[in-house]
Amino acid sequence: MDTRILSLAATQARGLAIDAVHKAGIGHLGLPLGAAEIGAVLFGEALEFSPTDPRWLNRDRFVLSAGHGSMFLYAWLHIAGYDLPIGQIRNFRQLHSMTPGHPEFGETEGVEATTGPLGQGVGNAVGMAVAAKQCAALFNTAAHCILDHHIVCLAGDGCLQEGVAQEACSFAGHFGLDNLILIYDANDVTLDAMADVTQSENVSAKFKALEWNVWEVDGHDMEKFLAVYLEAKGSDNGRPNLIIARTEIGRGIPEVAGTNKAHGEGGAKFAESARAALGLPADRLFYVSDEVHAGFAKRNETRQLVRAAWGRLFDAWKSANPALAELLESGVERRTPSTEELFEAIPAAPAKADATRNSGGVVLNALAEKLPLLISGSADLHGSTKNYINSSKDFTRDNRLGRNLRFGIREHAMGAIVNGIAYHGILRASGATFLAFADYMRGALRLSALAKLPNFQIFTHDSVGVGEDGPTHQPVEQTSALRLIPGLDVIRPGDAEETAGAFVAAVSNTAGPTALILSRQNLPVLSSIPADRRRLGVLRGGYVALAETTTLECVLIASGSELQHALAAAPKIGPGTRVVSMPSPHRFDAQPADYRESVLPAACRRRIAIEAGVTAFWWKYVGLDGEVIGIDRFGLSAPGEIVMTELGITAEAVVAAARRIGV
User: Fold this and answer.
1) Is the separation of the CB atoms in 103 and 67 below 8 Å?
2) Quick count: other Cβ atoms within 10 Å of Cβ 597?
3) What's the N-to-C CA distance of the chain in angstroms?
4) Dist. CA 369–CA 161, nearest whole Å
5) Interhelix angle for 290-320 vs 3-24, to 10°?
6) Residue 327 to residues 60, 76, 322, 534: CA-CA distances in angstroms?
7) Catalytic residue check, 411
8) pLDDT per position as a tens digit, 308-336
9) In this predicted model, what pLDDT tens digit does every residue of 380-410 receive, in sequence order?
10) Reduced to 3 states, what is the DSSP secondary structure of residue 62?
């Protein structure tokens, strides 16, 4: 596109940002103004996408990691012809608009990831690059290359200061993700102060040490930026690419440009003078000229030719490779076999006590045979989390088909990368670590729930039953804390058959993420409960594990390793005692009212919940007349059974509680 048109577009994109933030009275102007020329080059020339087919499989993915600069993305999506009318730009940050304060996946066409918490988008982009590499290796053939797109991410100083981004960039360098282009909007400013107040590292040297290609360029010189971008796109030396683009934050508002005051809405009060200085018409707010619209429409005509040519290539590939085409379609549509088929693939549990992490490994490997697009990773803990897919090998520079990801000791990046794999839209991804370390990746888990991503994470070593490692590795609050994330299905199974149900629930859940909470210590086989009831009961979140044999007097509610104690206590309490297994409160609460009433009758107010963790969560099920047996303190360093007994997680404690409430 003509540089003059791109320059006009950059000016008018600045105007859209100024007008939107000024009208809303809140927002972030710094990046949209400072990176306007970068946006013009990307959306006006460099990126390949299709506004009329925004989910086109071979589009370049653009991630705005610095999501606070959302008006950058909204302005360019509008100018580039996406379905984002100017009326939605006018409604920036307003109720039910397509332009929320930070970009949200699924709410606005062209938004590839939900971003805002700094650094997460960098990790998402790395995950997309992983997925793109694996999908290219899986689906491209010698005759037809249908997937060869790039992942482009724009990040700022705040993103690169966050640990999650550093972890992800280290991962990307090691695994040679040369389809990734990270643009660093280097404006030397953070929110509170100039960047040199908090950072002094040599970013170029750091990324070169991480095995990245690095370029530095004036981010306002569009011709030079495009040349560097094309060089990065064409690199084939097995290194990801960093473009350090030097920009002036808030360019276009002289009163704040180049200072930390430009980061937020500080410059919005100068909107009138800024618009005049930029040459924007005083009587037309939210202005994009016909000339700019026409220039971008012309560029989109060539994009449509690329898209059409790809469509013909794809049709030829599909005809030549019907099995691969069916597999690809199943991934895009998030199709999974029926729960019946999945359960049939899982062998019956052996009649011996075992840790649910071990049972989980067996189940995962059985399901991996039915789900060829399922990939699994661990934060340097495969030997402990037991989630290695034995029929495959590692994902490496030399083996992009490996279904096992070795994340290293990078839990936070693992969460963001797994999210990125889901955003890419074909593969199903999972990760694993110890439950005590879930807090390292909570930000990514929260975003996966917000974006409704069909991931699952495996958390083993689920309680004080870990034993000798002591309180640093003994989770007590993590399970309940994860349950508080809206949309995250947290499942804590009580034995091998419930574990089968938990994994089937996880892979069948295409509407959001799942967290599987598994034990390190051996748990008995709960053979008094039919295997089918255990498996299917998990899918409903809670079920009657042991029914009363006379008038109902008391209900015991338990999850995970404590289900055994409730079952052992019930006959000692009396024949009117019911035991309810509650592996997933999230699922149980979503059941019809009549089912919930059949499991937990409102008329029975004598209820006891037991779980080896904090007690607060369970009071909603036991009411004011009930009791909760749990652990409202940190653990102890001793053998697991001794710790459980010392902290009162026993069948005897359940019996004593029943006597206290009058059973």
Assistant:
1) yes
2) 12
3) 80
4) 40
5) 100
6) 22, 34, 9, 31
7) yes
8) 999 999 999 999 999 999 999 999 999 99
9) 999 999 999 999 999 999 999 999 999 999 9
10) strand
What tokens does 617 get?
A: 């969560």
Contacts of residue 428, Cβ cutoff 8 Å, sequence gap at least 6: 331, 334, 371, 373, 374, 375, 422, 454, 455, 507
Q: CB atoms < 10 A from the CB of 193, how many?
A: 11
In whole angstroms, what is the distance from residue 545 CA to residue 557 CA? 10
Give the whole-angstrom CA distance, residue 110 versus residue 62: 8
Q: Which residues contact 552 (CB under 8 A, 6 or more apart)?
A: 576, 578, 601, 603, 604
Q: Supply the angle between the helices 411-424 and 120-139 in degrees, to the nearest 10.
A: 50
**Rounded Cα distance, 555 and 532, in Å:** 22
| CB contact set of 658 (below 8 Å; sequence gap of 6+) | 554, 556, 569, 573, 577, 606, 608
| Distance in angstroms (rounded) separating the CA atoms of residues 47 and 70 | 18
Q: Which residue has the tokens 């004036």?
A: 218
HSE, CB side, 13 Å, CA atoms: give it for residue 219: 26
- The SS3 assignment for 554 reads strand
Q: What is the DSSP string of 188-211?
A: SB-SSSBGGGT----HHHHHHHTT
Strand, coil or helix: what is 317? helix
When the pLDDT of each residue in the chain is averaged and rounded to a whole number, the result is: 97
**Claim: this prediction has a pTM higher than 0.85:** yes
How far apart, in whole angstroms, are the C-alpha atoms of residue 331 and residue 654? Answer: 46
Alpha helices, DSSP H, located in 515-599: 531-539, 563-573, 585-589, 593-599
Helix, strand or coil, per DSSP, at residue 277: helix
Q: Within a 10 A sphere around the Cβ of 399, how many other Cβ atoms?
A: 14
Q: What's the confidence (pLDDT) of residue 130?
A: 98
Q: Which two tokens stand for residue 434?
A: 């110890």
d(Cα 29, Cα 37) in Å, to the nearest integer? Answer: 14
Among 104, 167, 411, 611, the one annotated catalytic? 411
435: left (phi > 0), else alpha (psi -120 to 50), else beta? alpha
Q: Alpha-carbon distance 341 to 428, whole Å?
A: 18
